[in-house]
Design goal:
Layout (H helix, E strand, L loop, with lengths): L1 E4 L7 E2 L2 E2 L3 E6 L2 E4 L18 E5 L7 E2 L2 E2 L4 E6 L2 E4 L6
Parallel strand pairs: 1-9, 4-6
Antiparallel strand pairs: 2-3, 4-5, 7-8, 9-10
Length: 91
Amino acid sequence: MVSFCEVSDCAYNKVSSCHAIAVTIGEARHPACLTFYKSRGGRGGAPSAEAMIGACKMENCSYNVLLGCTAGGVTVVFHHGHADCDKYAVR
């Protein structure tokens, strides 16, 4: 699950909590949060949702099992201009 989100300009972020139903992590060789959507004033997601990792495309991550995340919780951080999973660790 996404236990904390530092990316305040994401439409799914409400008070450092991700309200997307699920997020997808990873593109090519980078652990980006692909669910990130830059807010243009509006907010999205389900008010009571606590985002789960729906899919992890980082097959070389030590927490990835069958394209799912086994980390107890991840923080989405703002890194080099985009949202990233902080738990990514190469096996």
